């Protein structure tokens, strides 16, 4: 049996599909299972034992400098032709906009859900299996860090002896409603270090300049936070590629961040997560199958969360309260 799963949106969405992939592998152990993803999120499937092949197409906005749209479209067309020639038995469309790809590739059967119901994104995706028989309960998300990248990042970190947790702190968020003020990050870090519950902080952020028209980043913001915390055990972890973010977060004991792809990367590696939610659905997107605390103010703006509230939630998720 040859099965293709199409998931063409963001990193978190793809990771929320990994329990479905595990269920397919369990149900059809001898099947060939492929995934059609995009070049941005595809590294999240590297080393996944439930997947035989990953096919990544490049969205126009992600094309390399100097690469034409025509060239991007041509490569995508060749990839789709190759998939069509595989004569697939089943295509599962797990994201909006994937049905067009599915119809072009073709299969003996195509399953796509226009209305997936409520619940977590993992549960909504798992319902794609309903028409194939009993739907198994979804397990945890799955993500494998690259061992060589992990070792390189580990070697670059200063050793901090003693007890306490290594905290991954991600200070970036795509949505304005999910951006916690940087001075509160600074105050929180000082408090947690003074308590002794944290021995080292790994600082993560979206790479790039704030004024980048395509991919704005927080290099300047991270620099200001590092300057404010000079002399404390806080180490910047630049992540120019998704593989580095995955490996870097694998080095931490616990994660504090806004809702977004990095939150799911941590959860998929079994890390306890404290997540700050703005204008997004906690029910659908909260960290899956890990110890977690989720904070969302009545205004649905994380700027309305004070340091004391976030500190108390961190102590709860780590069991230090």
From TrEMBL:
<dbReference type="InterPro" id="IPR051199">
    <property type="entry name" value="LPS_LOS_Heptosyltrfase"/>
</dbReference>
<dbReference type="GO" id="GO:0008713">
    <property type="term" value="F:ADP-heptose-lipopolysaccharide heptosyltransferase activity"/>
</dbReference>
<keyword id="KW-0808">Transferase</keyword>
<dbReference type="Pfam" id="PF01075">
    <property type="entry name" value="Glyco_transf_9"/>
</dbReference>
<dbReference type="InterPro" id="IPR002201">
    <property type="entry name" value="Glyco_trans_9"/>
</dbReference>
<dbReference type="GO" id="GO:0009244">
    <property type="term" value="P:lipopolysaccharide core region biosynthetic process"/>
</dbReference>
<protein>
    <submittedName>
        <fullName>ADP-heptose:LPS heptosyltransferase</fullName>
    </submittedName>
</protein>
<keyword id="KW-0328">Glycosyltransferase</keyword>
<dbReference type="GO" id="GO:0005829">
    <property type="term" value="C:cytosol"/>
</dbReference>
């Amino acid at each position: 049996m040859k099965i293709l799963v199409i998931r063409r949106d963001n990193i978190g969405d793809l990771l929320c599909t990994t329990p479905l992939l595990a269920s397919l592998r369990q149900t059809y152990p001898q099947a060939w299972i492929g995934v059609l993803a995009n070049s941005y999120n595809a590294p999240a499937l590297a080393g996944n034992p439930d997947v035989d092949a990953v096919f990544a197409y490049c969205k126009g906005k992600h094309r390399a400098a100097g690469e034409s749209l025509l060239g991007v479209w041509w490569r995508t067309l060749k990839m789709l032709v190759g998939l069509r020639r595989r004569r697939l038995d089943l295509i599962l469309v797990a994201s909006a906009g994937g049905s067009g790809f599915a119809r072009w590739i073709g299969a003996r059967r195509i399953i796509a859900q226009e209305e997936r119901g409520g619940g977590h994104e993992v549960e909504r995706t798992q319902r794609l299996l309903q028409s194939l028989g009993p739907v198994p309960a979804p397990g945890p998300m799955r993500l494998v860090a690259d061992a060589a990248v992990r070792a390189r990042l580990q070697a670059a970190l200063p050793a901090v002896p003693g007890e306490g947790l290594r905290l991954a702190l991600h200070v970036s968020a795509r949505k304005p409603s999910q951006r916690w003020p940087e001075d509160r990050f600074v105050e929180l870090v000082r408090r947690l270090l003074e308590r002794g519950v944290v021995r080292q902080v790994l600082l993560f952020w979206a790479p790039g300049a704030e004024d980048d028209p395509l991919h704005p980043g927080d290099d300047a913001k991270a620099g200001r936070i590092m300057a404010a915390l000079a002399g404390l055990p806080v180490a910047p972890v630049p992540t120019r590629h998704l593989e580095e973010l995955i490996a870097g977060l694998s080095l931490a004991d616990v994660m504090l961040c806004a809702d977004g792809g990095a939150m799911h990367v941590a959860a998929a590696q079994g890390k306890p997560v404290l997540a700050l939610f703005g204008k997004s659905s906690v029910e659908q997107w909260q960290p899956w199958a890990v110890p977690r605390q989720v904070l969302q103010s009545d205004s649905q703006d994380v700027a309305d969360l004070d340091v004391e509230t976030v500190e108390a939630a961190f102590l709860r998720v780590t069991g230090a309260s």
